[in-house]
């Protein structure tokens, strides 16, 4: 039963992967085909370099090769498997960096707004640090058995 489920899953992954690769493979085939035609035409020009229609055909194949390369680059850039996920992750990282920079600037200018979504653990850690720095009793919600390094500071 497990083997059959694994087979079905792998088949699905194979089909999805093949579909994602198709635009890239199609563009690569087009580039290779047009390059082959370009080389065959160039070989004909080596034999008869003064044939104007062959030069025209060569120019056409050259344009096709150029367009095929552009199509391949576009397919790789836009349709490569995982590209959207990478772009999304990069956007998320950039957004986090901007948030950190804004918070840093606000903290430096003493304009850091208080947030209601700060966890209880952070608030307890802040209170404990303040208590340790001012030699007061730490808040009762913190168990110092979890933090033996604080024991020298406890009165």
From TrEMBL:
One of its GO terms (cellular component) is plasma membrane. Residues 1-20 form the signal peptide. The keyword Ligase does not apply. GO terms for molecular function: actin filament binding; integrin binding. Gene3D superfamilies: Talin, central domain. Keywords: Cytoplasm, Signal. This is Talin 1-like rod-segment domain-containing protein. It comes from Hucho hucho (huchen).
